[in-house]
Write a structure and sequence with these properties.
3 strands; mainly alpha; binds fe (ii) ion; minor pseudopilin epsh fold
Length: 224
């Protein structure tokens, strides 16, 4: 009984310690759900090690400023330059890694489970000339990002849709981002996202991504 009480006390202490910290939302599908385009081992490692590390490191960096756990992480990005200087880099890199991956998981779905609606097709055609032209421009952003980073489709405050890419774990909320707005499609082009299956063939991974894009989520992010 004493042992049970001790375990209960410890579990309450741990939950109090972690209260309010940033947490990973479980994947909305199985690790193998995106096969053969994204392999299950990559998904497992990417979610449980890479994304988990960014999340843990963000929480650790904010330990001195626990009031920041209550903020929406995108607010931390928008006010990056006003944050205490000793955590700005950690919020940029680990906060970016936490948020970008959380968004990325929702941007994918099992192949064939969602379809681009006529409404979305119309919006992409109006912005880029055609859906094919949109895809080519997005692939180009993903391919020309030197080193590690992300390709984005961003809805700017004016409503304009813009494709661009950022280095490392930067994103369109950060003050020095050349394009600012809400990311409505995201693609991780860090090697850890594709190396096991595609090795150095980033182009093959980028092409494969189209088979698992969650078009319903893109529409949701666009507010359609
Ligand atoms: Fe990643």
């Amino acid at each position: 009984m004493k042992r049970l009480n001790l375990l209960l006390l410890l579990s309450i202490c741990f939950s109090l310690i972690s209260y309010g910290q940033f947490k990973q939302t479980p994947l909305p599908y199985d690790y193998k759900a995106l096969e053969p385009y994204i392999d299950s081992t990559t998904m497992y490692i990417h979610f449980n090690f890479h994304h988990a590390a960014y999340t843990n490191n963000l929480n650790k960096a904010l330990e001195k400023y626990p009031e920041l756990y209550k903020k929406d992480v995108t607010e931390l990005f928008k006010n990056l330059n006003e944050l205490p200087t000793d955590i700005q880099t950690a919020v940029r890199n680990n906060g970016g890694g936490y948020y970008n991956h959380s968004l990325f998981w929702t941007m994918m779905a099992p192949a064939g489970s969602t379809k681009m609606s006529a409404k979305l097709e119309k919006a992409l055609t109006a912005s880029f000339g055609s859906v094919d032209a949109f895809k080519t421009a997005f692939e180009n952003a993903a391919m020309t990002r030197f080193g590690s980073g992300w390709a984005w489709l961003v809805k700017e405050p004016s409503g304009k849709l813009t494709i661009y890419s950022t280095a490392n774990q930067d994103n369109p909320f950060m003050p020095d981002s050349k394009v600012k707005g809400t990311p409505v499609l995201a693609l991780d082009v860090w090697e850890h996202a594709y190396y096991l299956k595609y090795q150095n063939k980033r182009a093959a991974y980028v092409k494969a991504f189209w088979s698992v894009v969650n078009w319903a989520e893109v529409e949701k992010q666009m507010g359609m």
